[in-house]
Fold:
Amino acid sequence: MRLRFLHSLKTRLVAGWLAGLGMTLSMAGLLYFGAQTMESSARRASAADDNVRDLFAFALICHRYMNAFEQSLGQRTLVANNERRIAARSFESRMARMPQTRPSNRAGLDWASLRAISHDLQTVMSGADAMRARGRFDDAERTFQRARREHFEQRMLPWFDRAIQVQRTQAELLERALVEQ
Structure:
């Protein structure tokens, strides 16, 4: 069965040109929408990477606070006390910026638990600091060591380990999905 309208050369050229134009436009549309999907995936992967970096930064602030407090108990110098105050302000500031709810890009993280751990740690550390200020250095040292063990090492560090692993896994999955597109 031959198509009669394709007998002339002009008709064939026009039909070929229209078919090429149709394929070009469909390919352009596919590339356009694929690029939007890829850009969206790249944004999500970047946000997940930012969350991991943010968690690492907060963990470092907590470590700095613990170390500065321990040094101020051991050295009892103006420099060590100033470093302790700076680290405490940084810790308190970061606690204040902690998410109140779980944003969608940080799903799976128990922020209420971290907030409770941070509050408990800060409360005990404030008590130890008050003891240090009154000259009760031995009591302050014992209180600090208990706070470090019970709140920082046994509760906060495992929370950070889990949270960083969750965020790292999420970032890796998003990056893998991005590469597969």
